[in-house]
Structure to design on (327 residues):
């Protein structure tokens, strides 16, 4: 296991290095960060030259990449076009997004496994058709539609019944709240609706993977043999079938966790959260021009998360199925 982890880590680092160069190259050739300044007749060429020097645009491409890479490895993600360092804001935004993503993944995975197993065991029953129908509904529904419905109905009814605001519809927290318990309840109240929104659109796809995987395992020879030996049906289901049926789902959950971190843009916009999604959106639609440093930082965090969770999924394979040997 240790040797496998070392090899996978080295391969992941090599992949990340290649990805970092490709990402830097794509961002570098996608446009001129100073295009808006250069189009303004009131800005002098000297000012534009200073801005070009500050952003390192006067250097060769490979030198700019090496400078950016070495600085990034020390936690310095450069300076945005607004003159602010990208790193502190990046980590702050990542913490806000993880507050939404971590409970979403845990709850969605739990629901998906239960529904996938139930619908597989009771294939083609009324319960199967009903749960499958809801899964397809949530899977195909636009995220902003679910967010609006939760705001207009769930939040309104709960707040009206409570007599005060319990479920907040805008922002990740209320400024000025002090005290441990008030702060906790305030953050929780802001988190419930975004998490429910992401859970509904996430569990739907995962439950379909779990159902399909469970059906394949239930029809496998070793499961039939376990039943023929007279083993307890629950033991056959949970020990022999479910453990192996979880392997494909582990891959999907691990990879989706990484993509949800950077991809919850619509949910964050709908609920006014200043997380990673908003971070990318603001970087692409900056007040001056698309912010290359912001976009590159976002892409690198997302790429790193994908590689890390891919390695984690490989390790979980061996935990779930002892027949898999990580040689």
């Amino acid at each position: 296991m240790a040797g496998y982890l070392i090899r996978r880590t080295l391969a992941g680092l090599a992949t990340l290095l290649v990805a970092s160069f490709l990402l830097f190259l794509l961002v570098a050739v996608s446009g001129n960060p100073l295009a808006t300044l250069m189009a303004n007749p009131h800005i002098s060429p000297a000012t534009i030259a200073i801005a070009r020097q500050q952003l390192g645009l006067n250097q060769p491409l490979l030198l700019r990449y090496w400078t950016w890479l070495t600085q990034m490895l020390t936690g310095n993600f450069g300076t945005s076009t607004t003159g602010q360092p990208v790193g502190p804001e990046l980590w702050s935004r990542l913490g806000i997004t993880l507050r939404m993503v971590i409970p979403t993944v845990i709850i969605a995975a739990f629901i998906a496994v239960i529904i996938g197993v139930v619908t597989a065991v009771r294939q083609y029953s009324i319960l199967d058709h009903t749960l499958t129908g809801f899964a397809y509904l949530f899977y195909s529904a636009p995220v902003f539609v679910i967010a609006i419905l939760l705001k207009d109905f769930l939040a309104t009814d709960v707040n009206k019944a409570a007599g005060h605001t319990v479920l907040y519809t805008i922002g990740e927290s209320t400024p000025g709240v002090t005290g441990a318990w008030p702060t906790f309840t305030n953050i929780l109240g802001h988190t419930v609706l975004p998490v429910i929104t992401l859970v509904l659109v996430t569990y739907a796809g995962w439950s379909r993977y779990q159902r399909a995987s469970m059906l394949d395992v239930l029809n496998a020879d070793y499961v039939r043999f376990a039943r023929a030996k007279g083993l307890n049906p629950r033991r056959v289901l949970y020990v022999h079938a479910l453990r192996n049926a979880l392997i494909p789902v582990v891959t999907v959950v691990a990879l989706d966790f990484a993509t949800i971190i950077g991809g919850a843009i619509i949910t964050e916009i709908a609920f006014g959260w200043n997380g990673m999604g908003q971070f990318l959106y603001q970087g692409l639609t900056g007040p001056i021009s698309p912010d290359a440093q912001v976009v590159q930082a976002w892409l690198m965090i997302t790429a790193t998360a994908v590689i890390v969770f891919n390695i984690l999924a490989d390790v979980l394979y061996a935990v779930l199925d002892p027949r898999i040997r990580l040689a």
About this structure: Residues 283 and 291 are 5 Å apart (CA to CA). The domain at 90-320 is CATH 1.10.3720.10 (MetI-like fold). The chain is about 75% helix and 0% strand. The first helix runs from residue 2 to 29.
